[in-house]
């Protein structure tokens, strides 16, 4: 396997986690910018919110917690699907909007941190689904157009 193939495999394997990492760090940075250095309770709230969000997605996605999990290899139709610009930026804008909205109400900071942590996790995963759906429709639509224009040949 050549170096480009190895790089491509690495990018494919890491792309979901990379976008999620940017989202979690970015949302945390927004919280710090808004509220200053977080207390221990704020950090626990943020992490707890993220864990609750991930647990909820896991329960819904797999139909429970104590079920067997089998993972197929990831199928990516185009490299652009791996960048996750939409999921990352839209989620960060959502986190910032939530911080600004909650700032208008007398809500304890640990609750805000928890809500933003949960949003960052759930929002990113749901926006990935939107990205994947749009990517598939765009690529499938492109393929359908090509087939229609040249008699079904690609």
TrEMBL record:
Keyword annotations from UniProtKB, A to Z: Membrane, Transmembrane, Transmembrane helix
Transmembrane parts of this sequence: 16-37, 43-67, 79-99, 111-130
The name this protein goes by in its record: Uncharacterized protein
Species: Halarchaeum nitratireducens
